[in-house]
Design a protein that fits this description.
The chain is of the alpha/beta class and 413 residues long. The chain is 31% helix and 15% strand. The longest helix is centred in the N-terminal third of the chain and has 24 residues, at 2-25. The chain is globular and about 55 Å long. Bound molecules: 2-acetamido-2-deoxy-beta-D-glucopyranose (2 copies). It is found in: Secreted, Cell wall.
Length: 413
């Protein structure tokens, strides 16, 4: 009984990741074959399941998913000392950058609340158990569902294709709804998010801070949201091409910081490396140095590696050749370079571990467990908590692969 629940959860996580990867690699047609999760961790406790709430009236504000349906969120109320504290976690799941792949997406849970699960497990940073989530377990915890395809930041439409690109309006309608649910009295708040949601938590960080009372303590956490404007294995810029399409199709430039747009083109301002210096609210970057999503979809997507010479390495880091590892070390060096200025002020936080991972705050095994990843002897949950509550300055950067034996590396079949 217990085991079958664990299996279900692993399958769910596998499907999540496969979607995330295939959803973006496939710019319309060719998708990577489904990958299966083969890490042997098990989840020790039955996760709490939390119901979906649709945001009634959001449509009258133009805040709708790609297919015009209402956006939604999952909320579990805080209790005791956490009753006036709010964690908002933005869901991830790639982007859509063409009419064609946005039309595909609008018939999935990433583009329509018709297909969203009615209940989802709250694990890791969303867990309601102190032994799984020591600092945030009794806060009001919210997962905001992602159904716009542009990191909650677009604002346009394509009538002919029946597509609404209303990420920014969804973000605002959700904030308004949560304010009326009690967030207007928040004493403490943390905006987090993973992957495309981790990028959104950077993009919306200062806005979030400005919506909350002056007296409240507000910070932001980006998990696996530090997408680099990197050169891929064919010498091109696969992710820049993709981001360029997202920004243009969904008119994201309307919602990018003016301070960045005055210096760079809109697509560049969608890349965190050019954005984080414009964020004034305290921000924490949690990212694997060998982010497997970026390896698979930005560095060596099928379009950049038509012969598939990276396939073995992409599915299991243990199978990378020494020249491939060298390429990945350059990627890590670029990431460290790009966070150098960001890292200087004491209010910012960093946890860059040398693992082959993606989204380490949502999964219990990577957030806080007996064998979860460590840097400077701290699990991720403790590093984030120490930073949020100003117990310590946290700027944790790992030594290069393969020195870290606390990783939970993802392996795909
Ligand atoms: C969640 O939804 C289920 C039906 O899907 C319902 O039985 C249950 O009471 C709901 N839980 C809460 C806390 O509203
Ligand atoms: C990949 O690595 C695993 C583990 O080291 C090994 O068992 C497997 O044979 C390797 N596969 C290839 C194609 O090299």
């Amino acid at each position: 009984m217990k085991l079958s629940m664990r299996m279900k959860l692993l399958i769910l996580l596998a499907a999540e990741f496969a979607f995330l990867v295939s959803g973006i690699i496939s710019s319309g047609s060719e998708t990577q074959t489904l990958m299966s999760f083969s890490e042997n961790d098990v989840v020790s406790l039955q996760p709490q399941m939390v119901n979906l709430t649709l945001i009634q009236g959001a449509d009258s504000k133009g805040a709708v998913c790609l297919d015009g349906t209402l956006p939604g969120y999952h909320l579990d109320r805080g209790f005791e000392s956490g009753a006036n504290s709010w964690l908002i976690h933005l869901e991830g799941g790639g982007w859509c950058n063409t009419i064609r792949n946005c039309v595909y997406r609008k018939n999935t849970r990433r583009g329509s609340s018709k297909y969203m699960e009615n209940q989802i497990p709250f694990t890791g940073i969303l867990s309601n158990k102190a032994e799984e989530n020591p600092d945030f377990f009794n806060w009001n915890r919210v997962k905001l569902r992602y159904c716009d395809g542009a990191s909650f930041s677009g604002d346009s439409e394509n009538e002919a294709a029946g597509l609404q690109f209303r990420g920014q309006k969804i973000w605002l309608a959700a904030m308004e709804e949560l304010m009326s649910q009690g967030m207007q009295n928040a004493e403490q708040a943390l905006l987090s998010g993973c992957s495309a949601g981790g990028l959104a938590s950077i993009l919306h960080c200062d806005e979030f801070q400005s919506l909350l009372p002056q007296s409240s303590k507000v910070k932001c956490l980006s998990d696996a949201g530090f997408f680099l404007d990197a050169i891929d294995v064919s010498g091109g810029r696969s992710l820049r091409n993709l981001f360029g399409g997202v920004v243009q199709l969904q008119e994201v430039q309307k919602n990018l910081p003016k301070s960045c747009l005055s210096q760079r083109d809109p697509t560049s301002c969608f890349f965190p490396q050019n954005m984080v210096e414009h964020v004034e609210t305290p921000l924490f970057l949690l990212n694997a140095a060998y982010d497997v999503w970026q390896v698979q979809a930005s560095l060596a997507p099928p379009t950049a590696d038509p012969l598939g010479s990276w396939n073995d390495c992409k599915s299991n880091h243990a199978n990378c050749s020494s020249s491939q590892i060298e390429f990945l070390q350059d990627f890590r060096n670029q990431m460290l370079d790009d966070v150098k200025d960001f890292s200087r002020p004491s209010q910012t936080g960093l946890f860059i571990n040398s693992c082959f991972a993606h989204c380490q705050s949502e999964r219990q095994e990577t957030w806080f467990a007996d064998d979860s990843p460590l840097l400077e002897d701290k699990p991720i949950a403790v590093a984030v908590g120490d930073w949020y509550f100003d117990r310590e300055v946290v700027k944790a950067i790992d030594c290069p692969y393969p020195c870290d034996n606390s990783c939970h590396n993802l392996v795909f079949k």
